[in-house]
């Protein structure tokens, strides 16, 4: 129906309908250092390219006359029935991607209208309470970068719990920043100074550490943030403490090794968020290649997967390899850059429409039917 009613002819779509088109439009729109911050990654960027080509190695088996005219893409996660298996992974600078510099609120509003959960980064331009309030009835998750100040970590998690978030995602792969040549070349981080720190600046524990409030001396507050942000000494021994921070579901993001999955499970973690941070942190293997072993080790624990999803078929493939739900980063980041809330909503609806159509045309009516058997290896288009 869309071909007749809207998307084409005299009434073209308002934003690009492919990832390449979105990236090109964002490149036009954003200040070049900010664009490179989002688009770039670690080292020679082989990992982020491999994240994408890993999906291209798989094809989907077509089944005919399967009665898949009506599809159900809903999934269950921590007792929530989600309309689709898609999440918005945390993007720390999403706050400054939109014209009004309230990209976190735009993302939350898009989450409220679409039902696609937002994983809200620690690095937000608005306090987490404001973001939680904009989520409406859609469950949201709070992502913690564990600071080296334990009281501050506890305060952030306590606030997220009180604000109504449905789970805490602790990101483990960014205890210090990766080697990112584009950002090094542009000296991006001084550029980002003061950006996306409002969530910290509003925290009572963070404020108690400062000689003057951030409103009076933002420079000193920013410097304090820089020395507190990461905790390089965090180890598995600290999992008991992390677990004790909340009764909410606890997810560990960045885990891609089966032994680490088992340690997490033994430590009382509720779900694994398998990710290589979109190739922005370590130069490593494509996360997708590691997913099946992670799913096997996770046993009954849910596994959320991100890194490299660019299209509807990619969603289907990650689910078939065992993910309970999937996340995207750059695709919705570009949507935010080119259209704010409406841009994000457009990107989400295109991806979900394509995933739905991919399932239907291949003869799969529900997510439960997506098992490894529906994939064929060695499909590489090149
Ligand atoms: C990220 N990512 C990220 N992850 C996280 O846990 N906390 C964060 O604050 C951020 N910030 C961030 C900023 C930008 C600009 C990008 C592109 C990514 C990683 C993100 O959550 C996710 O793991 C990847 O983006 C997934 O890969 P794709 O979809 O971008 O290929």
UniProtKB/TrEMBL annotation:
<feature type="binding site">
    <location>
        <position position="143"/>
    </location>
    <ligand>
        <name>FMN</name>
    </ligand>
</feature>
<dbReference type="GO" id="GO:0004497">
    <property type="term" value="F:monooxygenase activity"/>
</dbReference>
<protein>
    <submittedName>
        <fullName>Lactate 2-monooxygenase</fullName>
    </submittedName>
</protein>
<feature type="domain" description="FMN hydroxy acid dehydrogenase">
    <location>
        <begin position="11"/>
        <end position="380"/>
    </location>
</feature>
<dbReference type="InterPro" id="IPR037396">
    <property type="entry name" value="FMN_HAD"/>
</dbReference>
<dbReference type="InterPro" id="IPR013785">
    <property type="entry name" value="Aldolase_TIM"/>
</dbReference>
<feature type="binding site">
    <location>
        <position position="171"/>
    </location>
    <ligand>
        <name>FMN</name>
    </ligand>
</feature>
<keyword id="KW-0285">Flavoprotein</keyword>
<dbReference type="InterPro" id="IPR008259">
    <property type="entry name" value="FMN_hydac_DH_AS"/>
</dbReference>
<feature type="binding site">
    <location>
        <position position="277"/>
    </location>
    <ligand>
        <name>glyoxylate</name>
    </ligand>
</feature>
<dbReference type="Pfam" id="PF01070">
    <property type="entry name" value="FMN_dh"/>
</dbReference>
<dbReference type="GO" id="GO:0010181">
    <property type="term" value="F:FMN binding"/>
</dbReference>
<feature type="binding site">
    <location>
        <begin position="90"/>
        <end position="92"/>
    </location>
    <ligand>
        <name>FMN</name>
    </ligand>
</feature>
<keyword id="KW-0560">Oxidoreductase</keyword>
<feature type="binding site">
    <location>
        <position position="180"/>
    </location>
    <ligand>
        <name>glyoxylate</name>
    </ligand>
</feature>
<feature type="binding site">
    <location>
        <position position="37"/>
    </location>
    <ligand>
        <name>glyoxylate</name>
    </ligand>
</feature>
<feature type="binding site">
    <location>
        <begin position="329"/>
        <end position="330"/>
    </location>
    <ligand>
        <name>FMN</name>
    </ligand>
</feature>
<feature type="binding site">
    <location>
        <position position="280"/>
    </location>
    <ligand>
        <name>glyoxylate</name>
    </ligand>
</feature>
<feature type="binding site">
    <location>
        <position position="145"/>
    </location>
    <ligand>
        <name>glyoxylate</name>
    </ligand>
</feature>
<comment type="similarity">
    <text>Belongs to the FMN-dependent alpha-hydroxy acid dehydrogenase family.</text>
</comment>
<feature type="binding site">
    <location>
        <position position="121"/>
    </location>
    <ligand>
        <name>FMN</name>
    </ligand>
</feature>
<feature type="active site" description="Proton acceptor">
    <location>
        <position position="277"/>
    </location>
</feature>
<keyword id="KW-0288">FMN</keyword>
<feature type="binding site">
    <location>
        <position position="275"/>
    </location>
    <ligand>
        <name>FMN</name>
    </ligand>
</feature>
<feature type="binding site">
    <location>
        <position position="253"/>
    </location>
    <ligand>
        <name>FMN</name>
    </ligand>
</feature>
<dbReference type="InterPro" id="IPR012133">
    <property type="entry name" value="Alpha-hydoxy_acid_DH_FMN"/>
</dbReference>
<dbReference type="InterPro" id="IPR000262">
    <property type="entry name" value="FMN-dep_DH"/>
</dbReference>
<feature type="binding site">
    <location>
        <begin position="306"/>
        <end position="310"/>
    </location>
    <ligand>
        <name>FMN</name>
    </ligand>
</feature>
């Amino acid at each position: 129906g869309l071909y007749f009613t809207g998307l084409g002819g005299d009434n073209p779509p308002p934003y690009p309908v492919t990832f390449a088109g979105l990236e090109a439009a964002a490149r036009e729109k954003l200040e070049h250092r900010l664009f490179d911050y989002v688009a770039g990654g670690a080292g020679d960027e082989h990992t982020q390219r491999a994240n994408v080509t890993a999906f291209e190695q798989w094809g989907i088996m077509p089944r005919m006359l399967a009665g898949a005219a009506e599809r159900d893409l809903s999934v269950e996660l921590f007792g929530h029935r989600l309309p689709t298996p898609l999440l918005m992974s945390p993007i720390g600078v999403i706050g400054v991607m939109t014209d009004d510099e309230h990209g976190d609120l735009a993302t939350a509003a898009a989450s409220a209208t679409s039902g696609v959960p937002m994983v809200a980064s620690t690095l937000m331009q608005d306090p987490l309470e404001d973001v939680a309030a904009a989520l409406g009835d859609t469950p949201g998750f709070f992502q913690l970068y564990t600071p080296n100040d334990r009281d501050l970590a506890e305060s952030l998690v306590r606030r997220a719990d009180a604000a109504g978030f449905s789970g805490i995602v602790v990101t483990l792969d960014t205890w210090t920043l990766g080697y990112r040549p584009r950002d090094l070349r542009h000296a991006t981080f001084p550029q980002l100074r003061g950006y996306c720190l409002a969530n910290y600046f509003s925290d009572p524990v963070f404020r108690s550490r400062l000689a003057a409030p951030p409103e009076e001396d933002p420079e000193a507050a920013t410097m304090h943030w820089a020395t507190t942000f990461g905790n390089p000494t965090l180890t598995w021994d600290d999992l008991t403490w992390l677990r004790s921070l909340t009764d909410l579901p606890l997810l560990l993001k960045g885990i891609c090794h089966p032994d680490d999955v088992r340690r997490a499970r033994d430590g009382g973690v509720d779900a694994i968020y398998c990710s290589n941070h979109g190739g922005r942190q370590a130069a490593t293997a494509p996360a997708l290649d590691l997913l099946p072993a992670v799913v096997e080790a996770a046993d009954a624990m849910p596994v959320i997967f991100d890194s490299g999803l660019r299209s509807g078929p990619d969603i289907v493939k990650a689910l078939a390899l065992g993910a309970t739900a999937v996340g995207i980063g750059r695709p919705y980041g570009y949507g935010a850059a080119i259209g704010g809330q409406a841009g994000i909503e457009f990107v989400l609806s295109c991806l979900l429409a394509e995933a739905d159509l991919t399932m239907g045309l291949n003869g799969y009516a529900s997510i439960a039917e997506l098992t490894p058997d529906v994939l064929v290896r060695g499909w590489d288009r090149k």
